[in-house]
Amino acid sequence: MTRRLNFIAAFLLAVTLALTAGGVAEAKNPSAFFVVGLKSYAFDDNGVPSNNEMDVAPFIENGRAYVPVRYLAYGLGVAEKDVNWDEASQTVTLSMEGTTVKLQVGSKTFYVNGKPQEMDVTPLLRDGRVFLPARFVAEAFGFDVFWEDPTITINAK
């Protein structure tokens, strides 16, 4: 119960700050709010907040916040058809608005429109689910990422 109240309070604070700054209505894509340890997230689509359930929770490892790939992608505005997983190479490909991001489980190198970039951590495969480092993926799509204990807040530039 306390975690749920913390999530609601953090979400409301983040939405209030975004509205005060004028960023939500003008954002090119939804703003996403993930809470470490909780299986729910929220995002804003044309000014309408909604809560969504995940089957796994984001976590912190090696100083980075990891979010399940599919939910991170949806929170950023990536369409379901543009989230692809290649089991053989263990590679995730995300595409949105002319930007393609490829990440491979266990590799610190990821590709943005074919150009290699380095991360200080790798995507992880846990219990059959791929978790991506939220900051690197969101920034590759042009988002700003903010850490507000206990939320990971992703806002459009």
Structural write-up:
This protein has 157 residues and is an alpha+beta fold. The protein has one domain: Copper Amine Oxidase, Chain A, domain 1 (2-Layer Sandwich), CATH 3.30.457.10. The chain is built from four helices and 14 strands. It has helices at residues 2-21, 23-26, 69-76, 134-140, and strands spanning 31-35, 40-45, 48-53, 59-61, 64-68, 83-86, 91-96, 99-104, 109-112, 115-118, 124-126, 129-133, 143-148, 151-156.
Reconstruct the topology from this structure.
Layout: H1 2-21, H2 23-26, E1 31-35, E2 40-45, E3 48-53, E4 59-61, E5 64-68, H3 69-76, E6 83-86, E7 91-96, E8 99-104, E9 109-112, E10 115-118, E11 124-126, E12 129-133, H4 134-140, E13 143-148, E14 151-156
Antiparallel strand pairs: 1-2, 1-14, 2-3, 4-5, 5-12, 6-7, 7-8, 8-9, 9-10, 11-12, 13-14
Main beta-sheet annotation? 5 strands, antiparallel
For the termini, the CA-CA separation is 34 Å
CATH architecture classification: 2-Layer Sandwich
Mean pLDDT: 75
Taking all Cα atoms into account, the compactness measure Rg is 15 Å
CATH superfamily: Copper amine oxidase-like, N-terminal domain
The CATH topology name reads Copper Amine Oxidase, Chain A, domain 1
Order of helix and strand elements from N to C terminus: HHEEEEEHEEEEEEEHEE
Assign a percent range to the helix content: 10-25%
Question: Which characteristics define this entry?
Answer:
single chain, 157 residues, Copper Amine Oxidase, Chain A, domain 1, five-stranded antiparallel β-sheet, 14 strands, globular, disordered N terminus
